[in-house]
Amino acid sequence: MARAAASKAPGADDGSGIMTEVEIRRIKLWQGRIETEVEIAGSGPPLVYLHGPWGLAPDRAFVAQLAQGHRVFAPKFPGTTPGDPNAAHALDGWHDLVTYSGELFDTLALSAPALAGHSFGALLAAEIAAAAPRAVDRLVLIDPVGLWRDDHPVQNWMLLSDTARKAALFADPDGAASRRFFTVPDDPAARVETLSQMIWAQACTGKFVWPIADRGLSRRMHRIAAPALIVWGAADRIVAPVYAQEFAKRIAGAQTALIADAGHLPHLEQEGRVLAAVARFLGQPASRPAKAD
Prior knowledge:
By secondary structure, the chain is of the alpha/beta class. The protein is 31% helix and 20% strand. The chain has a nine-stranded mixed β-sheet, with helices on both faces.
């Protein structure tokens, strides 16, 4: 049986001066073997946000903006919740991970929320929408991994040098978004903690996606029934922008938004453009596309 405990966190500044009150809820799942921290903020229609391979911390400003119009639930991936680093070992593969996600939705009393994710989190969002089509109202995928083309191989961000990683993740490797993403505290202890959390988050998610970022999603995507928006950074050098159409053609009625001057993290590098595209999509009248054969 799942158990939950809640606390209030100090208001979080989303980077624009807006203070967002965040509730932190700790939930015991998977027969008590996984403790998951969920950050909850905002009011309005429910939206679940699944972070990318670097953990939730880099995405908090973006999540705070989403919370201006939605009740946003941002769970931390198993293993990245403080105090339970070994939780990722409780899940053996994709079937476990998707089933665990369903248990999380049930515990949060979310019957059919909008679901958004970035990179690895977007892959997981697509898998959830394919496994349980009625469990997702709308789907937003931001530069997802999960498909493979031999002529455009997906880059393993874990193996890139620091210099190559910056150029792969950001259209402007020396720009403000890149500096914020890679900046670590000056205090030695805080610096070690920040770096270790980011590395461990990559290890926890990497277990499910590498050495090749294709776990058969293409065989299941036809089941996605939720209206879908695929957002892509035009200068993404991790997952080439050609994959936007690869995803779109496999999800009936999917829309695409190509974000100029952005790499693999367009929601950080061009936050305003991504938020505008997401807001337009989520504000459209609800209509589900015809299910593919």
